[in-house]
TrEMBL record:
<dbReference type="GO" id="GO:0007399">
    <property type="term" value="P:nervous system development"/>
</dbReference>
<keyword id="KW-0325">Glycoprotein</keyword>
<feature type="domain" description="GDNF/GAS1">
    <location>
        <begin position="4"/>
        <end position="42"/>
    </location>
</feature>
<dbReference type="GO" id="GO:0016167">
    <property type="term" value="F:glial cell-derived neurotrophic factor receptor activity"/>
</dbReference>
<dbReference type="InterPro" id="IPR003438">
    <property type="entry name" value="GDNF_rcpt"/>
</dbReference>
<dbReference type="GO" id="GO:0043235">
    <property type="term" value="C:receptor complex"/>
</dbReference>
<protein>
    <submittedName>
        <fullName>GFRA2 isoform 7</fullName>
    </submittedName>
</protein>
<dbReference type="Pfam" id="PF02351">
    <property type="entry name" value="GDNF"/>
</dbReference>
<dbReference type="InterPro" id="IPR016017">
    <property type="entry name" value="GDNF/GAS1"/>
</dbReference>
<dbReference type="GO" id="GO:0009897">
    <property type="term" value="C:external side of plasma membrane"/>
</dbReference>
<keyword id="KW-1003">Cell membrane</keyword>
<keyword id="KW-0472">Membrane</keyword>
<keyword id="KW-0732">Signal</keyword>
Amino acid sequence: MLANKECQAALEVLQESPLYDCRCKRGMKKELQCLQIYWSIHLGLTEGEEFYEASPYEPVTSRLSDIFRLASIF
């Protein structure tokens, strides 16, 4: 029973850690390493549970907003 409490305490610490909220960027220099770290953290948290997780990538900005921002330059 003690091990279960220790595991729960470790899980709570991890979920409060900045690592838990890290996201990767597509095409980044160390994208594969980032994804490996992301999944090692998040898959370990869902053992025995149904897994549903948002994308490991940062939200993508709308291309349309980029077009309008660039259009103002020209």
